[in-house]
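Q: Focus on the shape:
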Amino acid sequence: MIYKTKFKGLLILKKKLYRDKRGYFKELLIEKQVKQNFPFVVMSFSKRNVLRGLHIQNKNSQGKYISVIKGRIFDVVVDLRKKSKTFGKTFSIILSEKNNKSLYIPAGFAHGFYTIDRENYVVYSCTNYRDAKSECGIRYNDKDLKIKWPTKTPLISAKDKKNISFNEFKKNIYYEK
């Protein structure tokens, strides 16, 4: 099943799960459902209380299809498409192995997540390759975004501690689409 959101192009996908006494088999991604190709697929593992993001490539941008293989995450996106009716607005959802939901995030959104379970494996299928030169990050706790994260004291990387404010992003970088 595909559920549309109030954000143009942002989709929640509830995937099929085939369970029997041996375990289960589930579909992760059917490209024709989101009408995108995904040439770059990566995975992350995170312990509990890790926050990754909010990340975006301002050039060579990526659409992302996010699936949780094991664990549970609080997933957040921020619409950074300058001409969008939902510019600067956030969307959050719990994605987990158990609820079998995935999220398709179109190009032009910043993305981040907070890990809830002890072990969290997340697969990102991306519409474009990584471009380290155009990577940018917005502070997860930016007061203008008003994101209600599950904690006020997450574990974040040294790189993410240097992320800029939403206002700095708007003034200096701005994603054009």
